[in-house]
């Protein structure tokens, strides 16, 4: 079925429009130009700030002039992930979508529903001729997924709105009033290489088929982390057979749970049969452990061409032990909000080769001091292995305000429309509200959105019925904005 025929057509058509435009984080030039043209073609005040955020203003519809001005906000960039066997050029191709069993999906890649559906809904409001709404400031931020630099760069005198609707959450029965902050913890070091002896055999070890997912929203699900699983295999091989590492390439984006890891290793030929037996035993045990959460996991070791060099022995031992010791997954649950992850870490990237080690982590917490504590724990672990550790991309959380006036509006309208109570939550993902609130502390902020599953992975999918529900809710919210 053609995506453009889905209801509500005004939202799905705008989503199809932006999904035709490549929009990776830090390469948003084309989508920025697209949005600038979109606003100007509508005859609306449209401008770009100094970091690349696009702001479009639309006056209130007749009879709504006395209502508070609303900032509708979503981010333009999307996470680019694909399956290992998918051939796709994210820099030049539009996302290929299809409909299956009530969901919109992409062919082997991320869908971009995060946060493209939010962008599309705002565009539909801006383009509308008959939607009742107060004065609107549409804020389209850049680079949310790899550092939130758009939100960080937005100056405090740009927006005039009183209320901010962030359309970037992923369960349609939830209203979000808080989120976690985050910090990138990156460990690096160099090492000397050693020549590979003749009496050795090389293997290419592959861990793949994991679900992956959002390193905040999915971190509690017990999903496999390809970097941790690979390290477990390497640790066992090193302890029992003197395995030596030539290369590792595991994971990718900081905010995606790593789905694949590939390593090239060598062992002495004398251990060939014993290593193969032990490896298969451990691989079977790991797959058995994860059979419920990761049914698609595959682990293999195939003989390959012998590399020229491996890591120096002392550095290899330190790195393997450091990755084993470094925390991955949920670190602490919130004592204040039931079922909310407070603090976590994702070992997102492990890259070893050509004399260099890089280990990338994204640490999150809704408690600033707990975030620092876990980051320091990781730093200490990696420094014991001789790494230099840097912190970057630090952004604050969003402190929940249970007395928010706009929260009361959304709760009452949700109950009125859907005859049920919404879940008022804080999330473990990073939302831009916390950052925007630093320069706009008086702005009343709320976040909601349609149901999206598997964000940041090629399994990302958007529920069609939920998008219709989200759109209906949005229209009712806009009609119910309080007076100034």
Automatic annotation (TrEMBL):
Catalysed reaction(s) here are: Hydrolysis of dipeptides, preferentially hydrophobic dipeptides including prolyl amino acids
Keywords assigned = Cobalt, Dipeptidase, Hydrolase, Metal-binding, Metalloprotease, Protease, Zinc
Q: Which Gene3D superfamilies match?
A: Zn peptidases (3.40.630.10)
* Cofactor needs: Zn(2+); Co(2+)
Top-rank taxon of the source lineage equals Bacteria
In this record, what's one Pfam family?
M20_dimer
EC main group: hydrolase
GO cellular component terms attached to this protein's record = cytosol
Task: Family membership, please give it.
Answer: Belongs to the peptidase M20C family.
Name the chain's protein. Cytosol non-specific dipeptidase
Species, as recorded: Leptobacterium flavescens
- What taxonomic ancestry is recorded? Bacteria, Pseudomonadati, Bacteroidota, Flavobacteriia, Flavobacteriales
Query: What is the primary gene name for this protein?
Result: pepD
């Amino acid at each position: 079925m053609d995506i453009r025929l889905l209801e509500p057509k005004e939202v799905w058509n705008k989503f199809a429009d932006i999904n035709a435009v490549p929009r990776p984080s830090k390469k948003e030039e084309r989508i920025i130009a697209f949005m600038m043209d979109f606003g100007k073609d509508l005859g609306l005040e449209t401008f770009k700030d100094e970091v690349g955020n696009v702001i479009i203003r639309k006056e209130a519809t007749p009879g709504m002039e006395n209502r508070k001005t609303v900032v509708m906000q979503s981010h333009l960039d999307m996470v680019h992930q694909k399956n290992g066997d998918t051939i796709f050029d994210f820099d030049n191709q539009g996302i290929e979508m299809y409909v299956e069993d009530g969901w919109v999906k992409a062919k082997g890649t991320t869908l971009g529903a995060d946060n493209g559906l939010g962008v599309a809904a705002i565009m539909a409001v801006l383009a509308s001729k008959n939607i009742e709404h107060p004065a609107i400031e549409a804020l389209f931020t850049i680079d949310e997924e790899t550092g939130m630099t758009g939100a960080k760069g937005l100056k405090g005198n740009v927006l005039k709105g009183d209320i901010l609707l962030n359309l970037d959450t992923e369960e349609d029965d939830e209203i979000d009033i808080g989120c976690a902050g985050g910090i990138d913890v990156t460990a690096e070091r160099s090492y000397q290489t050693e020549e590979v002896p003749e009496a050795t055999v090389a293997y290419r070890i592959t861990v793949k088929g994991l679900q992956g997912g959002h390193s905040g929203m999915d971190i509690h699900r017990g999903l496999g982390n390809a970097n941790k699983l690979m390290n477990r295999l390497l640790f066992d091989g090193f302890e029992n057979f003197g395995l030596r590492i030539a290369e590792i390439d595991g994971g990718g984006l900081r905010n995606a749970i790593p789905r694949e890891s590939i390593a090239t290793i060598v062992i002495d030929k004398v251990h060939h049969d014993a290593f193969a037996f032990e490896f298969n035993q451990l691989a079977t045990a790991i797959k058995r452990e994860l059979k419920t959460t990761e049914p698609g996991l595959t682990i293999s070791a195939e003989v390959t061409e012998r590399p020229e060099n491996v890591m120096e022995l002392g550095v290899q031992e330190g790195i393997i032990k450091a990755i084993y010791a470094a925390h991955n997954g949920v670190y602490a649950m919130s004592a204040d909000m039931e079922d909310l992850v407070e603090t976590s870490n994702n070992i997102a990237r492990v890259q070893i080769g050509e004399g260099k080690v890089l280990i990338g982590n994204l640490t999150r917490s809704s408690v600033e001091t707990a975030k620092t504590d876990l980051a320091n724990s990781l730093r200490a672990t990696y420094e014991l292995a001789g790494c230099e550790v840097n912190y970057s991309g630090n952004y604050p959380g969003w402190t929940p305000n249970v007395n928010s006036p706009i929260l009361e509006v959304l709760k009452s309208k949700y109950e009125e429309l859907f005859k049920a109570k919404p879940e008022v939550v804080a999330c473990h993902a990073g939302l831009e509200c916390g950052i925007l609130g630093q320069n706009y502390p008086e702005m009343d902020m709320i976040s909601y959105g349609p149901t999206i599953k598997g964000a940041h992975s090629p399994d990302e999918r958007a529920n069609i019925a939920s998008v219709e529900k989200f759109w209906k809710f949005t229209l009712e919210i806009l009609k119910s904005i309080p007076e100034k």
